[in-house]
Amino acid sequence: MTAPFGARLRQAMDDRGQLCVGIDPHASLLSAWGLGDDIAGLTTFSRTVVEALADRVAVLKPQAAFFERFGSKGVAVLEQCVADARAAGALVVMDAKRGDIGSTMAAYAEAFLDGGSPLFSDALTVSPYLGFGALKPAVDLARKNGCGLFALALTSNPEGASVQRAVGAEGRTVAQSVLAQLAAENAGVQPLGSFGAVVGATLTDVDEADLAINGPLLAPGVGAQGATMADIPRVFGRSARNVVPSVSRDVLKHGPSVQGLRDAAQRFVDEVRTAVA
Ligand SMILES: O=c1ccn([C@@H]2O[C@H](COP(=O)(O)O)[C@@H](O)[C@H]2O)c(=O)[nH]1
């Protein structure tokens, strides 16, 4: 039986360091790597990232959009990418940001969190903006299959605040409500719950108490969006050890050299270790 995602993530971060590398095959990166903006380029790009990093970084996070833009052939590349990355030892967080009414959410959950699915991943990013309760089918399937979820709470983009910082009837922000419901899912779990939040490393004013969800905190925004690893303790305070900083473009720009990708990832691992120590 597979250990819960939170326990597997804790172990992976202890062994390999606190880093998630995003696999985001932007057209501009494909071009910079000397590849075509086509299926052949997508295949070479994702294979190279997996070859370079899946045996050494804790988490790889394919961004589904960059594969989906090529249609079914792109999705086939994504399926292979996920399978290869998992086989090489990385935990895979599928960044697909799914969220819908409960009955449809059940189908999204099956697509990514059912062991028989070609896109089976260790965890999935989800949007709680149809109501956190609508995510229940995904919560249930994730728990059953040792998977995790990362719910969007305080995203790294400046536009997110208009929704996420809005104050609801009970006097707390939407983000606070999402974080509290994640904390409830993780209550009492050791060493770390499996139900995480997406909280940008770019943020300036976050209440440390809200982040104590006993679950992982996926922190995009390091690198191209302007945050650095030094921001991790500033933003996350006492929860910094549960943070998985996520970097896509600022690692990927060092390809197609396998060694270049490895060196870039290692620099970020070293930087976050120093910052969080
Ligand atoms: O709040 C969020 C949630 C998700 N993302 C995703 O992370 C990567 C960031 O890429 P970089 O190149 O490191 O900027 C991308 O896939 C986003 O969709 C985010 O940035 N912020």
UniProtKB/TrEMBL annotation:
<dbReference type="GO" id="GO:0044205">
    <property type="term" value="P:'de novo' UMP biosynthetic process"/>
</dbReference>
<dbReference type="GO" id="GO:0004590">
    <property type="term" value="F:orotidine-5'-phosphate decarboxylase activity"/>
</dbReference>
<feature type="domain" description="Orotidine 5'-phosphate decarboxylase">
    <location>
        <begin position="18"/>
        <end position="264"/>
    </location>
</feature>
<dbReference type="InterPro" id="IPR018089">
    <property type="entry name" value="OMPdecase_AS"/>
</dbReference>
<dbReference type="InterPro" id="IPR001754">
    <property type="entry name" value="OMPdeCOase_dom"/>
</dbReference>
<keyword id="KW-0665">Pyrimidine biosynthesis</keyword>
<protein>
    <recommendedName>
        <fullName>Orotidine 5'-phosphate decarboxylase</fullName>
        <ecNumber>4.1.1.23</ecNumber>
    </recommendedName>
</protein>
<keyword id="KW-0210">Decarboxylase</keyword>
<dbReference type="InterPro" id="IPR011060">
    <property type="entry name" value="RibuloseP-bd_barrel"/>
</dbReference>
<comment type="pathway">
    <text>Pyrimidine metabolism; UMP biosynthesis via de novo pathway; UMP from orotate: step 2/2.</text>
</comment>
<keyword id="KW-0456">Lyase</keyword>
<dbReference type="GO" id="GO:0006207">
    <property type="term" value="P:'de novo' pyrimidine nucleobase biosynthetic process"/>
</dbReference>
<dbReference type="InterPro" id="IPR013785">
    <property type="entry name" value="Aldolase_TIM"/>
</dbReference>
<comment type="similarity">
    <text>Belongs to the OMP decarboxylase family. Type 2 subfamily.</text>
</comment>
<feature type="active site" description="Proton donor">
    <location>
        <position position="97"/>
    </location>
</feature>
<dbReference type="Pfam" id="PF00215">
    <property type="entry name" value="OMPdecase"/>
</dbReference>
<dbReference type="InterPro" id="IPR011995">
    <property type="entry name" value="OMPdecase_type-2"/>
</dbReference>
